[in-house]
Amino acid sequence: xxxxxxxxxxxxxxxxxxxxxxxLRVGGPADWLFQPADADDLAxxxxxxxxxxxxxxxxxxxxxxxRDGGIRAVVIRLGRGFNAISVKDNAVTAGAAAxxxxxxxxxxxxxxxxxxxxxxxxxxxxxxxxNAGCYGAYVADHLVSARAITRRGEVxxxxxxxxxxRYRQSDLPDGWVIIxxxxxxxxxxxDALDARMADQIARRDATQPTRARSAGSTFRNPAGFSxxxxxxxxxxxxAWKVIDDAGMRGARLGGAQMSEKHPNFxxxxxxxxxxxxxxxxxxxxxxxxxxxxxxxxxxxxxxGEQAGDTDTEK
Length: 314
Hints:
The protein has three domains: 11-80, Uridine Diphospho-n-acetylenolpyruvylglucosamine Reductase, domain 2, CATH 3.30.43.10; 81-192, Uridine Diphospho-n-acetylenolpyruvylglucosamine Reductase, domain 3; 211-303, Uridine Diphospho-n-acetylenolpyruvylglucosamine Reductase, domain 1 (Alpha-Beta Complex). 25% of the residues lie in helices and 25% in strands. It contains eight helices and 17 strands. It has helices at residues 39-48, 100-109, 124-130, 139-142, 160-163, 190-207, 239-245, 274-292; strands at 11-17, 29-35, 55-58, 64-66, 71-77, 85-88, 91-95, 133-134, 137-138, 143-149, 155-159, 177-184, 214-217, 252-253, 256-258, 265-268, 301-303. The strands form five sheets. Strands 6-7-12-10-11 form a five-stranded antiparallel beta sheet. A hairpin with a 6-residue loop joins strand 15 (256-258) and strand 16. The chain starts with 10 loop residues before the first strand and ends in an 11-residue tail after the last strand. Residues 224-234 and 310-314 have low confidence and may be disordered.
């Protein structure tokens, strides 16, 4: 592991365990974890970082399995210097580290409707990268622009078209780090928006294992969405339903379990390894294919090496 890294004003930690930084609480160490002080610190670091060192931007770990062997890369995690939220008219600008729920609440207090963000786990950087959505609304519907820092340390502004949004996907070059995004929403009375968010929270808590250790939806819905990420009423095929039909509700492997409450949620019951979680997910995919000939795609990102491996897999 090279130690010839640029000097920084933030925190640069070698061989940093990542399990405590992910919602599933599993995974091995990163070769390096960089927590930049601000955008200038990040830009200078990326500019001066040796080109042969891979970079992996990591949000709050809400939609991530870090494999047990860890990550052979510089992991970049944004913090307090990247979580500001401001509102002007019906435009809301949020740092990439701002939590989705916080952005929804601050927007609502100013009478701007970004309520779809309220129940989405994670932070704004990940929401943009994944075209996150809920209750029929998606980032693609509201994003005006995003600012990112390239692998060469250049600050660029990306429009909606530059990101080529699709269902749970966007195009962002490897090593680029989103630092900020601006959204627009319809205006509405704050009380009405608060009531809508309260209803969303109640519906989520009634149907999802919100108190369990999970990473949100495990697999993408196999159909029912257009290429832009909008709902398509001509289909209504859901991942949870095909998992349930395959008899995998509540299935267990080691410390991993598919939720009894919502079978598209993969849980760490307390002592799971990353291998337990990923292997159970693969068993679910196998059973669903055998039962319905549908090949489920992972929504949770899996990154790093299996324990004992020497080559990074994804």
